[in-house]
Amino acid sequence: MSIALIDTSVFCNVISVPGLNQNRDDVLEELENLLDQQTTLLLPMAAVLETGNHVAQCPGGRPRRKAAERFCEKVMEAIDGAAPWTPTPFWDLDLLCEWLGQFPDHAMRGVGMGDLSIIKEWDRQCALNPARRVFIWSLDGHLAGYDRKP
Prior knowledge:
The chain is built from 7 helices and 5 strands, in the order βααβααβααβαβ. By secondary structure, the chain is α/β, with parallel strands linked by helices. The protein has one domain: Rossmann fold (3-Layer(aba) Sandwich), CATH 3.40.50. A 5-stranded mixed sheet has the order 3-2-1-4-5. It is globular and about 40 Å long.
């Protein structure tokens, strides 16, 4: 069994955020495949926060409201254990301070704070699960490369 961290690019398609859901059919098909393979799906806090920001920027009141309701429903299902993915722990201050110390070097490579936190969660999952494949499920090439085989 593998562990997949769901990136914002994927979660926006799952939620069907207008303008950010061009790959929805492919994402839903891959979701089905991952579930069939009994992949553990993790929803990083950065993906929750970033997706919420994208929802809030949707044009038009009605589409924004509908996207916000879908977003809340899916995140609440995750918190309640009713979704196929589990939210990762929220960051503690010591960890955040450590990441801030590393952020300037990552920023110089174009890696934002949200992506850095997802990469750090990938590192943590790799350490916790040495016998399992751990990967970031992303439509963004720079994150999709994080795939550690056991």
